[in-house]
Amino acid sequence: QVQLVESGGGLVQAGGSLRLSCAASGSIFSINAMGWYRQAPGKQRELVATCSNGGSTNYADSVKGRFTISRDNAKNTVYLEMNSLKPEDTAVYYCNADADGSKWPFRVSYWGRGTQVTVSS
Question: What percent helix, strand, coil does the chain show, rounded to 5?
Fold first, then answer.
C-alpha cells in the first residue's frame, strides 16, 4: 500500500504561482512513476504531468511551459510548480503513484485526496 498526502493548494490571482507537494509513504519501493492529475467541476479527471523513477517527464499540452514536475527521491515527494496560472487551471489536483501490484495486471494506481487550486481572474 502507498499513501499519498498533498499540500500547497489555495487561491491565487491569474498570472500567479503555486507549488504543490505530495509526500508518499508505505510501500514506496513499488512506485514506478508519480504524477499529478486534476478535475474541474463537471469535467473528467485529466493528466497534468507525470515523472518516472528515471526522471522522464510528460505534460499535458495545456500546461507545457508553465508547470514543472519534479521529484525528491530522498524525501519520497513529488512537486508541481505552477506558474502563469489561468482561471482554467482551477480544479482539484490529485497526486498519483503508479506502482507494482501483487495481482494481475500487476499494476496499482494510488491517489491522494486532492487539493483545491482556485485561480481568480
Answer: 5, 60, 35
What would the grid cell of residue 96 be? 498519483
Of 41, 22, 46, the C-alpha closest to 90 is: 41
Angle, CA 78 vertex, CA 114 and CA 8 arms, to 5°: 45
**Alpha-carbon distance 79 to 92, whole Å?**
15
Residues 105, 21 contacting (CB under 8 angstroms): no
The model's pLDDT over 76-91, given as tens digits with 9 standing for 90+, comes to: 999 999 999 999 999 9
CA distance 11 to 72: 25
Q: Per-residue pLDDT tens for 45-59?
A: 999 999 999 999 999
Residue 23's nearest CA partner among 85, 71, 90 is: 71
Contacts of residue 42, Cβ cutoff 8 Å, sequence gap at least 6:
none
**Cβ-based neighbour number of residue 96 at 10 Å:** 21
